[in-house]
Amino acid sequence: MVIKSSTLSALLILSLVLLVACASPTATPEQEASLERIESFPGVSERELYDRAEDWIARNFQSADDVIQLRDPDSPRIIARGQARPALDLGFRRAFMYTMILDFQDERMRVRYENLESRDIGNVAGPDMDRQWDSIAEHLNANTDDLIEAIEVGDVHDDW
Question: The domain containing residue 150 runs over which residues?
Answer without folding.
Answer: 27-155
